[in-house]
Amino acid sequence: MSLNLHLLRLFAAVAKTGSFSRAADLLHISQPAISKGVRDFELQVGCRLLDRTPKGVRPTREGAALARHAETLFAAERAAEDELQALRNLDSGSLRIGASTTIATYMIPEYLGIFHRAFPGIDLHVVSANTSDIAALMLGHEIEIALVEGPVEDENLTSTAWRTDVMGLIAGPDHRFAAAPGPIDLRQLNDEILIVREPGSGTREVVAQALAAHRVEPQRTLEIGSTEAIKQAVAAGVGVAMVSMATIDDQVRLGKLKVIPIKGVPIERTLWQLKSPGRLEVPAAVAFEGIIRETKAAKTSRARAARA
């Protein structure tokens, strides 16, 4: 049995929106046409795909399975359309970038500016989420560039190092650590409230690994799903946190946060670019990667010149 892709598209729209009327609006066709198309599709596949309820519709077990495949299929279709458009030239098209929260907020805006000035006709779309969510988007062909904070173990993805990020311990200006005459011992965190990111965050994973390596287990932890919110909580004296040094310049200059040096424990992490092996890269993605490499090389050269 070969699936009718037009009918599959109608069913997928209803499954996604949970409503025949919303699906009709999404696809710009009439609601009766949607209803008839879904009925014909159910007859074709030989089973009920949607349960009709007073509150709308929801996929059956078979419908949910088919909807997942439909999502992958239509994502591949969009990727093909984008690639064909991009192959013509870099004067038009789009580039979808997924980045972990810290990277999206503090690191890639510089690259976005350079790219936009070089290729103003390319529409940029940036998705900010935690590492696990970005990996899922890359697997689903929803993005062309994936930049994340933590390592991802998935046989369907490859990880390539693209930047080193320095982590630092921060405290509020009135915290006892702020008055320390020199670097503190990492074990002093055992008596502190450590503010951490949510599960799935690359930052949280790196911090957890660093503490476990030194057998440090803070007395209490507080989970907050935003680096900005974590910094505000630290500044208010709620606890301490380990964050990327790239995220704190403004607050340190204003005296709202203080970086606390740690004895003999530099904490660095590798930032990763995820790719899907075998997937053709659109020229816009290749150009963006080139900007990342060139910017890194220029910064390295300036740093060496400054040390000379």
Automatic annotation (TrEMBL):
Q: Which residues form the HTH lysR-type domain?
A: 3-60
- One Pfam assignment: HTH_1
Q: Does the keyword DNA-binding apply?
A: yes
**Family matches, as PROSITE patterns:** HTH_LYSR
Q: Mind listing the UniProt keywords for this protein, alphabetically?
A: DNA-binding, Transcription, Transcription regulation
User: Which superkingdom heads the taxonomic lineage of this protein's source?
Assistant: Bacteria
Q: What does this protein do?
A: NodD regulates the expression of the nodABCFE genes which encode other nodulation proteins. NodD is also a negative regulator of its own expression. Binds flavonoids as inducers.
Can you tell me which family this protein belongs to? Belongs to the LysR transcriptional regulatory family.
**What protein does this entry describe?**
HTH lysR-type domain-containing protein
* Organism of this sequence: Bradyrhizobium macuxiense
